[in-house]
Amino acid sequence: MSSLYQSMVTVIEQSITPLAGRLGQQKYVIAIRDGFTAALPFMIIGSFMLVFIFPPFSADTTLGFARAWLDFSQTYREQLMLPFNLSMGVMTFFISVGIGASLGRQFNLDPVMSGLLAFMAFLLVAAPYADGKISTQYLSGQGIFTALITSIYSTRIYAWLKEHKVTIRLPKEVPTGVARSFEILIPVVVIIGTLHPLNLFIEAQTGMIMPQAIMHLLEPLVSASDSLPAILLSVLLCQIFWFSGIHGSLIVTGIMSPFWMTNLAANQTALAAGAALPHIYLQGFWDHYLLIGGVGSTLPLAFLLLRSKATHLRTIGKMGIVPSFFNINEPILFGAPIIMNPLLFIPFVCVPMVNAVLAYTATKLGWLAQVVSLTPWTTPAPIGASWATNWAFSPVVMCLICMVVSTLIYLPFLRAYERSLQKTAVENETRSPLTETAISN
Amino acid sequence: MVKIMLCCSAGMSTSLLVRKMLSVAEERGMPVEIEAYGVAEFDVQFPRYQVVLLGPQVKYMLSTLSEKTASHGIPVQAIDMMDYGMQRGDKVLDYALSLIEAAH
């Protein structure tokens, strides 16, 4: 056991930590994550409107209150859709500005300018303009990958031009504020001068404008991202990173967010059209079935710890239970600890994977409602799961099943861990009575 | 006034520790300012503080982040995993103070 543990520690130190370091500190991964984080409040509130537009009642209900709500939503559908259309429907605006600003900050550029530059770069290629109207077709999910590319491109160009001092030179007497107002002109010219012709060229060659062409190219990848192997792989990666003490969810959600958002928009479009929802694996699925109480679904474990025989584990349970309701479990991860603890490795990795298989299968069988709404990841699990599906009931049941599964898988390993803690405590007691208090401190 | 910044992915779990550290500082009658931030805010916030402590889960960013603070002479270190897990406000506060001491 101890030699196995040693080799595990070696693997973690020599390959996993450097890999996480490279992935998690990659400028573009950080910028994408920050961009989505910045856009999130608009999209959460925007998608919250869905419940008013599509009340969670069947169309032939006779319940007075539900009937009134349904009639209201039908009469005022267009008015109710407006906040949704101007947040979720144009999510790429917020994402572009967010990515441009974050990347700009990392390159020591003015974040407001780099954000706006990214915004313009995106509009240039993704917002076909005719008769005084802009088409919104590519401003939602269909434009996300384009927004990533144009934001990164425009900020890189801005940084490159600044680095190589390609700017309008003015005499020293000109105040710095005035000089700066000219500084941004060159990047704007270069962005327009490159992206606009490129877009025209792509359109002439393929008959598709840039976002259309990009979505066409990425189609296989986007559909592969919504499959059981993709779920299991992303969960496995996250769990192994976290087990090594690295914030794996930060890295995995950074990579998955563009796919989740694209697919979320597709689900919302289907909902609005009254069609079957095409996608299963979305942020709400990840947050509320796989990370119940935080990574590793440790909320049930927190309850088990509260009633543990080991003083140390009881203390951790008391400390960890309240944050756990809001999916924050660092006290448990580092305190129990789960991290680098060979006795808890198996349940920590298996619980979310088993739950992923169950929730995926249940959805495939048509028993579980699919995600159509964005939720804050700190929402307590059953509530968040229901909210994400526009307040269906089946996710609440699924969440409870996931918690039972989690309890059953953690329990035997926790008991083994308790026994090993007691054994070391007894051994220490025979040698020095001081060590035990240090452990249960 | 001692100014300490804690930093983790979203500033959520470190904010738990901030409360513990503040109550220890209060017991000791020590004037402190302690705040928790997410890594996204790191660049903007760190110059206002004397020391930055990272949650162990973002320790892998230590080298990049300490490069940024080096020119300001602000030390950055990761919090010990056990102290973090057990939310030992006293130990983490002592650690922060020792880092400030060592830097000056």
TrEMBL record, chain B:
Tree of life domain: Bacteria
Record GO terms (molecular function): kinase activity; protein-N(PI)-phosphohistidine-sugar phosphotransferase activity
Pfam families: PTS_IIB
Biological process (GO), any one: phosphoenolpyruvate-dependent sugar phosphotransferase system
Protein name: PTS system cellobiose-specific IIB component
All copies of domain PTS EIIB type-3, residue ranges: 1-104
SUPFAM superfamilies: PTS system IIB component-like
Taxonomic lineage of the native organism: Bacteria, Pseudomonadati, Pseudomonadota, Gammaproteobacteria, Enterobacterales
Signal peptide: none
Organism name: Buttiauxella brennerae ATCC 51605
Modified residues (Phosphocysteine): C8
EC number: 2.7.1.191
InterPro entries: PTS_EIIB-like_sf, PTS_EIIB_2/3, PTS_EIIB_3, PTS_sugar-specific_EIIB
Entry keyword annotation includes Transport: yes
UniProt keywords, alphabetically: Kinase, Phosphoprotein, Phosphotransferase system, Sugar transport, Transferase, Transport
